Amino acid sequence: DCFVYSSLVGEAGRVVGVEVNEQLVEVATRNINHHQALFGFSTPNVLFKHGHFGGLADLGLEDDF
What we know:
Elements: H1 2-9, E1 15-19, H2 22-30, H3 32-39, E2 46-50
Parallel strand pairs: 1-2
């Protein structure tokens, strides 16, 4: 889903995926560059973090991401 949102928000937008399963975070992270190239973006606009959605403050996200 995050990669679909990544294409929708465009290169200037940002998407953060939060997942409790660390292996899924690793798989998704490995696919960032593929989707960046597929969408023609010069920089990635998606980030995946291991954690719980209810604990977003604990994920160390910057306000401007």
